Automatic annotation (TrEMBL):
Catalytic activities: 5-enolpyruvoyl-6-hydroxy-2-succinyl-cyclohex-3-ene-1-carboxylate = (1R,6R)-6-hydroxy-2-succinyl-cyclohexa-2,4-diene-1-carboxylate + pyruvate
Quaternary state and interactors: Monomer.
Domain named AB hydrolase-1: residues: 18-245
Single annotated GO MF: 2-succinyl-6-hydroxy-2,4-cyclohexadiene-1-carboxylate synthase activity
KW Lyase (keyword) present: yes
EC number: 4.2.99.20
Native species: Cronobacter condimenti 1330
Protein name per UniProt: 2-succinyl-6-hydroxy-2,4-cyclohexadiene-1-carboxylate synthase
GO BP, sorted A to Z: menaquinone biosynthetic process
Record's keyword terms, sorted: Lyase, Menaquinone biosynthesis
Alphabetical list of Gene3D superfamilies matching this protein: alpha/beta hydrolase
Recorded metabolic or biological pathway in which this protein acts: Quinol/quinone metabolism; menaquinone biosynthesis; Quinol/quinone metabolism; 1,4-dihydroxy-2-naphthoate biosynthesis; 1,4-dihydroxy-2-naphthoate from chorismate: step 3/7
Length: 263
């Protein structure tokens, strides 16, 4: 069964299709501002399971989400595409790209996505933490859980106003659907993708905010060009959409370029 999605035609002669995947708590609108400045491509904005129009799609594993993603691409007859994903969407994009059945995939752009934890104990610890968050989503008032979620260290660069805006934006989510997706796609359940990513035969680029210390350090260990978005933390495409779009446009113009790009 395909996921809910929105297809948008290019504002000028199309050079291809970009498929956009949002992060946890987001939806297909997440990338609209950035995509508006990537005018020479058609866009497919997808609602991941448990989110937006796909809130009723309950995924049970990474492989299941990948099947749903493939079915969605087929339903739109998308044969050649670039895949762009943020955070959870970035993790799903990396998983998709490393499964060996993506002949139409032209390139991969990931913002703030984790390639996977190396050892079993660390994965077990993360799964337990995500299970506790999932239980909170099921049982506590959503706005309170969201406030605590956006006070985690990775979101430390958010101002009070930015945090409140995100809470208001995310408060329409269905808590049980979020909890199910969080548990089924926990970083603790994700296979480590480092080796598979290093063997990709398509362009792979990594974006993160210059103030996102955790993912900036992680990205430095990847075999992929690192693009830093100025004046931004973990949620770089929201904090500086114009620079993010400029960076993506540069990547798409020179897909095999290996130099670092400071946007």
């Amino acid at each position: 069964m395909p996921l809910a999605a929105q297809f948008q035609t290019a504002m000028s002669a199309s050079r291809g299709v970009i498929v956009w995947l949002h992060g946890f708590l987001g939806d297909s609108r997440e990338w609209h501002t950035v995509a508006a400045d990537v005018a020479q491509y058609d866009h497919l904005f997808i609602d991941l399971p448990g989110h937006g129009g796909s809130a009723g799609n309950e995924a049970v594993s990474f492989a299941h989400v990948n099947q749903l993603l493939a079915a969605t691409l087929d339903s739109y007859n998308i044969l050649n595409y670039w895949l762009v994903g943020y955070s959870l969407g970035g993790r799903m994009a990396m998983f998709h790209a490393t499964q060996g059945t993506t002949r139409g995939l032209q390139g991969l752009i990931v913002e703030g996505g984790h390639p996977g934890l190396h050892d079993a104990q660390t994965r077990a610890t993360r799964l337990a933490a995500d299970s506790r968050w999932a239980q909170r989503f099921r049982c506590e008032p959503l706005r309170q859980v969201l406030d605590d979620w956006y006070r985690q260290p990775v979101f430390a660069t958010l101002s009070d106003a930015q945090r409140e805006a995100l809470i208001t934006l995310r408060a329409d989510n269905q808590p049980a659907a979020l909890a199910a997706m969080l548990e089924s796609t926990s970083l603790g359940r994700q296979p480590p993708l480092w080796d598979a990513l290093s063997r990709l035969r398509i362009p792979f680029h990594y974006l993160c905010g210059e103030r996102d210390a955790k993912f900036r350090a992680l990205a430095a260990t990847l075999d992929a060009p690192l693009h830093l978005i100025t004046g931004a933390g973990h949620n770089a495409h929201r904090e500086n959409p114009r620079a993010t779009a400029c960076c993506i446009n540069a990547i798409l113009r020179t897909p095999t370029e290996n130099s670092h790009d400071l946007s």
